[in-house]
């Protein structure tokens, strides 16, 4: 550093210190003036308080940190705020004339933190830059003598950001760091395409473990497991899911996982769902980084409060401007949003920075989830999201600077796991949830099937041996509509499945009526007028309807196996036509015993196994790989009896979610299946990237060759 620069930098330090002292003076006087629970006494006490508090902090904080870190982390940092107040109390206890009551105990340190945070923001004397030096020191203390020379890779995920929204953010100038990388040619931006289930569970399983088989949706039902509802992100479920998808060779072997759903078999992890099992296990040594100095968590705490205010302001503005569609958002949501958007974001950057300085990890993958959270509730491209993205871009800038300061090189990859599509929800549009609509299409009392026939026999009947099923399917070359065809073919079908299906279905009067009225499946779909039986609630154990964005899953849980198309038609003839004729539904996916996967729309059927279309193609507008994704999904375990995907309106670029979220993802249609990856330009072109597992292959290949390049 030149002499001139040194002078400027020390001058800056002096000025910023003076400003910080001023901010503290104003804060103390303000609380004294407003609060009845705090008195300064003579005015010179203000300076004494600042000096005593600073000194007490310097002495006591390291002691508290050393012995109480576990307690601080398990209270999500609230414990740190308490300790900070305690230090303040101890420091002022010995100053004559100062009175600190119960409220004053909390008020003064928090107001001081707020004033100093604003002062550092206004004067652009960044607290954070100071903190980087502290982290560097901390990392060097923990460094082992062995030093790796080859570069590492850090992968940073912006949860839920589609390539199209990213491009808009770059054009708007809210992501200057990414813009620079693209314009300077250091990084290349590419689109990739998710699998059918466009959500973090499936995508991170694919990206981090190279395997997302059987992850049907964000939530699914395991019929054979007592109808257990599995939830990808649930702390008690994600370890179980990871155990099934992991072969031990994930993306992060010898790496670090932060704030992800799955660990990628990482050596180190923090805030990773699959490694926590319950929130009590959040404690993790890497989190110490956040609490090295008391001003750091105060800074985060103030930003947290600020984000809550921003959200409340947005709620009021959305109402005043009558923005549509709009969700009702509560104060609880405001706190959750601030937690995801601010606390996790800052903690993630700091943990990463500290580990980069240590230089022992080869890889890291971290999720920034603020955008996804805000876009779900405020809207995919609502004014709120640009501020969120701006702050995420600041993190990239910080990490890049940390790498520049570092003695080990790290390459940066930025990517997203899926996008989001917009539109009012199913319930907002039609005044009814998908679950209640399905109930209307089912008979009043599903139990008739349970009580009239022997349930165990029925259950056995519905459990075809998969091998046998395969031989039937393999023989099918053209579409077989045995259900509605003449006598001969139905006899064949009967013979083939005799052992596995109760004969009673074929003699069923309802079924014979259907056969008389319709000559084939398409005619049945387009011609059958579904009766809405009743709004009476079906017994919960007999029907489970789940929403995963604009993907709906219908499980008829009386049967231990997935029901076939033929079985559903015979058991509940109003169900399938009733679903596909609803204008909120784009298509459904069912499995036929003779034809395999059938995608049924209002005016046509797509037979997935043979790629044949009868009538109008129900997958028109859903992307050229839609059938490929659906075919794969149809082979998954735990598939619902009927899978539903909402319509996609390409003119307005809208879908409708079956959950109450106006920005949604989980199925297909629109930007939700169009995430991006921004990778170092010196890497060769990966070619077409379809499915999350293709991202794993691309990145794993780079990681495996790290020390050879
Ligand atoms: Zn989401």
Q: How would you portray this structure in words?
A:
The protein is an alpha+beta fold and 709 residues long. The protein has three domains: 3-125, no CATH class; 134-423 and 670-708, 3-Layer(aba) Sandwich (Alkaline Phosphatase, subunit A), CATH 3.40.720.10; 426-661, no CATH class. The protein is built from 26 helices and 20 strands. The strands form five sheets. The chain has a seven-stranded mixed beta sheet with strand order 4-20-10-3-9-7-8. Helix 1 (3-34) runs antiparallel to helix 4 (102-122). The two termini are 32 Å apart. The model is unreliable at 447-476 and 497-504 (pLDDT under 50). Zinc ion (ZN) binds next to helix 12.
Bound molecule types: zinc ion
Radius of gyration: 30 Å
Structural class: alpha+beta
- The largest beta-sheet arranges its strands as 4-20-10-3-9-7-8
What is the number of helices? 26
- Count of discrete structural domains: 3
Strand content: 5-15%
Sequence stretches where pLDDT stays below 50 over 5 or more residues: 447-476, 497-504
Helix content: 40-55%
Overall number of strands: 20
CATH superfamily of the largest domain: Alkaline Phosphatase, subunit A
Please outline the major beta sheet.
7 strands, mixed
Distance between the termini: 32 Å
CATH topology of the largest domain, anyone?
A: Alkaline Phosphatase, subunit A
| CATH class (first level) name of the largest domain | Alpha Beta
